[in-house]
Amino acid sequence: MSSDKIDQLFDYVQERCLWQFFSRSWDRQENIDGIIRTATDLLTGVDPKRDQPMDRLFYADAKIMVADFRERFPWITAIEPAEVRALMGTLRERIVDLAITRSQNHELSHSIY
Amino acid sequence: MGCDITTKERAGVINPMYDCQPAGAQYAGIGVKDCIPLVHGGQGCTMFVRLLFAQHFKENFDIASTSLHEDSAVFGGHQRIRDGVMTLARRYPALRVIPLITTCSSEVIGDDVEGNINVCNKMLKEAFPDRKVYVVPVHTPSFKSSQVGGYSECLRAIFKTIATRKATATGKLNIFPGWVNPGDLVMLKRYLREMDVDATFFMDTQDFDSPVLPDKSIHTHGRTTVEDIMASTGARASVALARYEGASTAEQLSSDFEVPAHIVATPYGIANTDALLQKISEITGRPIPDSLITERGVAIDALQDLAHMFFADKRVALFGHPDLVIGLAEFCLEIEMKPVLLLLGDDNSKYKRDPRILALTKKADWDMEVICNADLWELEKRVKDPDTKIDLILGHSKGRYVAIDGNIPMVRVGFPSFDRAGLYRHPTMGYQGAMELAENIANTLFAHMEFNRNKEWILNTW
Amino acid sequence: MPMVLLECDKDIPEREKHIYLKVDGEDTRDFLPVSNAQTIPGTLSERGCAFCGAKLVIGAVLKDTIQMIHGPIGCAYDTWHTKRYPTDNGHFNMKYVWSTDMKESQIVFGGEKRLEKSINEAFDEMPEIKRMFVYTTCPTALIGDDIKAVAKKVMAARPDVDIFTVECPGFAGVSQSKGHHVLNIGWINDKVGTLEPEITSEYTMNFIGDFNIQGDTQLLQAYWDRLGIQVIAHFTGNGTYDSLRGMHRAQLNVVNCARSSGYIANELKKQYGIPRLDIDSWGFNYMAEGIRKICAFFGIEDRGEALIADEYAKWKGRLDWYKERLKGTRMAIWTGGPRLWHWTKSVEDDLGVEVVAMSSKFGHQEDFEKVIARGRNGTYYIDDGNELEFFEIIDRVRPDVIFTGPRVGELVKKLHIPYVNGHGYHNGPYMGFEGFVNLARDMYNAVHNPLLKLAATDIRGPANATIREAAE
């Protein structure tokens, strides 16, 4: 798995995805986990869950992201599901690191909105 | 027939005519050169007032805030005053005057403004031994008076702080024009020049209409200098054109430094302008020159074309600053219009005893109403009332929807006039102003006749 | 290193923490400007107060609600005639302001009686209006008037009216932002769930954080109508008081302005389990993406694609005409906060414009995370910028156009830089597909203004061709 591929996906998310920057760390974690999970499903041919409102939300965000991935990074359609899963796992970690773990945003852990 | 002088009965206000005291104080403050007012209050008290001035003049003016927050509400805002003054002084090396303007919040908290200024003065002296920065205490709680009183109070406070000694006699006149547009100021200056009278205007706001220049320099600020204010105590006399906006400073100079104070009728219309020129002539001994006789004649000539043919018996509602409303009502009589509704927008109890209003009431052989402490809802209610029959509204832009929804022609005059272009450049005082205002009124009525198909054919030949 | 201490700030060195110059390879883990912090007194900041964040930004947008301001006259006067948010019922919200016109005796003896009287008068004078917001201001908060109790008393006496109270004096918090917060949280706690909305579609949402500036809401509403999605509540563009009481029944919350209104979307998720979807409503690419996400949520993708195809067919050609001519334009954005991150990439992608400096009045660190993630290298990111800083930044980045408020617009005019109203717009709406063409047109007309060359010409110098060129 090349770091170049990760960089491409990470840069895309950085630039386009508001869901990683929600108000509190638990909202961010929930979005990142849900959307990356759903996107991984979509990229690996698994039909994602869509019965709960939050699942449908993750689906909406993931679907558009995956479509963009396929258009901008055609290599993603050529790689094996195992590699996709690994790649998306690393992507998830990097987003969590940026948006939560090492975020300097002092409001992330306020207990109320 | 006759005139009622009443006061709005409701406690609350729907659509105010005036802003609060600190707003008026800020307007007086920006008239001084090398001066940035510092408003001791919440940030909105400054931000919105700067926007208001920008809307009217299409210019930016520098005004600072102490950015008062909760901690100041609990522990007092002393440190924020000191930080504000020192930050301004450090970052603006040319700064010479800082009016420290209080608001409702800082007055309720009860910060010791004078005490803090003493501390600031020591700090300033230490930091800038070769520079004098005047910090002026301006007490303008928003729950008293209005922008009218705030203007007057800031002007007075600035003079009290800076004009502390009797200056050598200058032979000049101090002119206090009140809260007027640059157009009025330029015109008044020309009149005095033509009379060969040396005068200083307080505040000199001519550059509130300022240019874009090739070198990108910015000249949007008052022209009144610290030296001008110091020299005011050696003037031959003071002439205040607005009883409620500047007369108190003229009176202060009279009681403190024996500079004779003359409070004249605000020069709207021909007769009021006559009286002003005659008063200046009387004080200075300078004759009224032929050029002004000619200008007066041109104005009367123009007004004659409009008065009895178009203006006569038109029922006019007026609102705005008291000196403006009263002066324009007097002008209405000269051009045969009937001022039927005068709205004065704060609780100053002196309006009811103003000799000009009493004179108007004596002249009124029609229904006329003067409402004190009025809001624009009073105007709107009367516009909606078929019995009131208003043909024309004279007032500032805040009344625009009353005119629009009531389909009544309205000429913007006074502050703020943000929904018509360039009005700040055109005089409304003096002969020239009377003529231009009347022509603006006529053209507004004409356009209204045309768009409403109301005897527009009269103008097929004129 | 990339935090910047400007020359004009040498006497207030703490400003360094608020100004960031982005360099290749850095992200917000390395540098994030301090924001939502107290302003240094006397700096000529652009900030307003918490009261205006509640009243002027959110509350006064409503088209059927009296906005009673309990305080001295200025708070009402100043939050009137400063916004362009029309309504489809004749702009009731822009025509009127209401004040208790607090005077000294009420400061001394309390103002509750005057408030009660003013509320009753307002309902009596405007009998067709049955809804009201009541706001405290600095002095009424300081003297401790209980506006909630007064509202309760009036509601008991007038069963057909409903009153919402906002206790948010101007001195609260550090900027407008505090007012957004207080109003959001107050509304969800006091009013959401007190009225059941009529459901007319199987797809329902709230559209949150859009204030119908020059008709934004109404433009977008045409999209939702075509998609068959019922917007239960607009928070608060062209909105009504009662529609906002029914927000709890929506299936989805779509959020545009996360700064002013993210709080209520968060609470609706927490309290009612309604998902929050953040979108950008400015820009072609973004708008299409937002529509796709909303339609994917509801499973009506085909409708979304048809709408996007039609809108592209209608407007894309005009957008590209402007893109061709705007490419490489250097833009600065000095607005409240969110428009920085909404716009920086959309003007770049859709119009080829480079955003070279951005200043936020009231954004939080969340907003800076978003804008720095999206924005360019070599661009300045400024929190609570003040006037001297603006001069210095202009010297450094030389923008061709600045999107900012009218007052700052008047200032930069003297520096031969055109402004476009970044708050109320020049000639909007700016949201949606058509709206972004409007924005492009206004930017083009500002940048290609012959007066700019004439302004720079000193006719005292040797004759040159500039004047003739400019006139052509």
How would you characterize the overall build of this protein?
The complex is a heterotrimer of chains A (113), B (462) and C (472). Chain A is built from 4 helices and no strands. By secondary structure, chain A is mostly helical. In chain A, helix 1 (3-16) crosses helix 4 and helix 2 crosses helix 3 (53-72). The radius of gyration of chain A is 14 Å and the shape is globular. With 462 residues, chain B is of the alpha/beta class. Chain B contains 17 helices and 15 strands. In chain B, helix 8 (182-194) links the parallel strand 7 (173-176) and strand 8 (199-201). Chain B starts with a strand and ends in an 11-residue tail after the last helix. Chain C has 472 residues and is α/β, with parallel strands linked by helices. Helices cover 45% and strands 14% of the residues of chain C. A 6-stranded mixed sheet of chain C has the order 1-12-11-10-13-14, with helices on both faces. In chain C, strands 3-2-4-5 form a 4-stranded parallel sheet. In chain C, strands 7-6-8-9 form a 4-stranded parallel sheet, with helices on both faces. The longest helix of chain C is centred in the middle third of the chain and has 26 residues, at 301-326. In chain C, 62% of the residues are buried. At the B-C interface, strand 2, helix 1, helix 2, strand 4 and helix 3 of B face helix 1, helix 2, strand 3, helix 4 and helix 5 of C. Strand 2 of chain B pairs antiparallel with strand 3 (98-99) of chain C.
